[in-house]
Write a structure and sequence with these properties.
The complex is a heterodimer of chains A (420) and B (68). Chain A has helices at 3-9, 11-18, 21-43, 48-63, 70-75, 98-109, 115-122, 126-138, 142-146, 148-157, 160-171, 176-183, 190-200, 205-230, 234-237, 252-269, 274-289, 292-316, 320-323, 329-356, 375-387, 394-419; strands at 66-67, 83-84. In chain A, 71% of the residues lie in helices and 1% in strands. Chain A has a domain at 140-290 and 326-419. In chain A, helix 13 runs parallel beside helix 22 (394-419), helix 16 (252-269) packs antiparallel against helix 17 (274-289) and helix 21 runs antiparallel to helix 22 (394-419). Chain B has helices at 2-36, 52-67. Chain B is flat and about 55 Å long. Chain B has one domain. The relative contact order of chain B is 0.05. The chains are: A mainly alpha (420), B mainly alpha (68). Chains A and B meet through helix 9, helix 10, helix 11, helix 12 and helix 16 of A and helix 1 and helix 2 of B.
């Protein structure tokens, strides 16, 4: 028995030895990063719902590479079969030839075990809509309805990252559509980034989605530092706000009426983004309609199942070959830039309200304009409470937070309408 | 680059207009519906089906209400 026979029994080792050195190091790095994500998720530093399946998926996909490429095997490509896995083939069906596309897709669906989930829920944006449906069912639009103009102004300030990153991304060699898709990372809304990149830059949608979700997880750990840097005074950070009574006056009927009208108006204005907008507002309507079985379904099994598979798919798409693509490297810089600028924009908006309200509005709520709900609102509350345990800003922050989701959807819709 | 800057400008204007239009609709609806509805404010999600996020938010809001 020679070494070749021995290694053929352990295809993982054989594939590792057959890889170029930079790929070996990248794979080892991603396996370790996967461990780190699981650890940070378990510790509660990052969102465990997403990070535990994502981290595990990332580690496993980079460990289970073998000398195998189903598409090359089928088409009888020249030379040795390439490296591949039995999980998912993101580029399956990427050929210009429609007949070959369909044939490849059917063939791949029969081989890769996660391929049906990727093809039927991920690559068509369905999973983003399902997550948005769940998010909608958790949103209380009463916070937005109580203070619409303040919430909207803060949310618009927090979109600065998206708007500034868009032209900057073109300087890195991306075309207009790719730049727009990348810049939506600044909206800090995972499903939105996924949906927009799929519409505008399907060739980059996998790395954009991975980087967006990875950075979103880390951004929430970094935003408290940004708040403390931009608002160094403890006294200002702890500004108490008058307890809110207006939210209580808004009935569920009013919230439902708002959701229906806003949904129809936005879908009329931005039909390209209507699947996402409809999913979000349908969730809100389900919540306010009081139909408990629907609420339980949408906020329970549907949302958690979508989140589990979203995290898992993002993890298994983090193969070293995808991450080491030269087109992906500038994304690492642009993603940070977009989220940083959005955070700065949101806090600047908060500062303006603090100034114009006679220092009655806590500027920290500005960070909640960065839309990932309800994390940034919770970040705002935690930072404020640390400096002034008596100060409660959650209700005000949630208004900006809810509106942040809507403004991100509007920007995504405008991008898709103008560029698609 | 120039095309991207002009598109950013257009996107900003459209987004601001639509956002404030939505805010305007919210304000009008809140005022009009408030006149015609006598419904009690309802936000009914029982403890059993609350996510950890929701329960955390509810706890903070409950504290705020108790201070009113």
């Amino acid at each position: 028995m020679n070494f070749e026979t021995f290694f053929s029994a352990f295809q993982g080792i054989q594939a590792m030895l057959a890889s170029p050195p930079h790929m070996v190091w990248a794979r080892i790095g991603l396996i370790l990063l996967g461990f780190l994500l699981v650890y940070l998720g378990r510790k509660g530093v990052l969102d465990p719902l997403l990070m535990i399946p994502m981290g595990l998926g990332m580690s496993v996909i980079n460990a289970s590479v073998m000398i195998f490429d189903p598409l090359k095997m089928r088409t009888g490509a020249n030379g040795e079969p390439g490296l591949g896995t039995l999980f998912v083939e993101a580029q399956a069906g990427a050929s210009e030839n429609l007949v070959q596309n369909a044939a490849d897709m059917i063939y791949i669906l029969g081989i890769d075990w996660l391929q049906p989930i990727y093809t039927f829920t991920f690559s068509n944006g369905l999973i983003a809509c399902l997550v948005f449906l769940g998010i909608g069912a958790l949103l209380d639009v009463g916070f937005l309805m109580a203070r619409p103009f303040m919430s909207i102004t803060i949310a618009l300030f927090a979109e600065i990252g998206t708007l500034i990153t868009f032209p900057i991304a073109t300087l890195f060699g991306y075309n207009i559509k790719q730049a727009a898709a990348i810049s939506t990372i600044g909206g800090a809304d995972g499903p939105m980034v996924l949906f927009t990149s799929l519409q505008l830059a399907p060739e980059l949608f996998v790395p954009i989605a991975i980087i967006a979700y990875l950075y979103l997880a880390f951004a929430y750990g970094g935003y408290p530092y940004l708040i403390r840097f931009m608002i160094p005074s403890k006294k200002i950070r702890g500004t108490p706000m008058k307890p809110d009574t207006s939210t209580n006056k808004i009935s569920s009927g009013q919230k439902m009426a708002f959701a229906i009208v806003a949904c129809v108006v936005l879908c009329f204005l931005l039909p390209v983004a209507s699947p996402l907008l409809f999913s979000l507002f349908l969730g809100i309507v389900i919540r306010e309609s009081g139909i408990k079985p629907f609420q339980d379904l949408v906020t329970g099994p549907l949302l958690y199942c979508s989140t589990l598979f979203l995290g898992l798919m993002l993890g298994v798409l983090c193969e070293a070959t995808t991450i080491l693509d030269p087109k992906v490297l500038p994304l690492l810089i642009l993603g940070v830039l977009a989220l940083l600028l959005s955070g700065i924009g949101g806090i600047t908006g908060g500062y303006l309200f603090w100034l114009f309200s006679g220092k009655k509005i806590n500027p920290v709520i500005g960070i909640a304009g960065v839309s990932c709900i309800p994390t940034t609102a919770k970040v705002a509350q935690k930072v404020v409470q640390k400096d002034n345990p008596q100060a409660i800003v959650m209700q005000f922050a949630l208004g900006a937070n809810v509106m942040g989701v809507i403004t991100s959807a509007i920007i995504a819709g405008v991008f898709c309408s103008l560029l698609k | 680059m120039n095309e991207a800057i002009s598109l950013t400008f257009v996107t900003t204007i459209i987004t601001v207009i639509i956002s404030f239009f939505i805010a305007f609709i919210v304000k009008i609806m809140t005022v009009i519906l408030h006149k015609f509805t006598k419904e009690n404010p309802v936000t009914t999600i029982t403890g059993n089906n609350m996510s950890s996020d929701e329960s955390e938010i509810a706890a903070v809001i409950a504290i705020a209400k108790s201070k009113q």
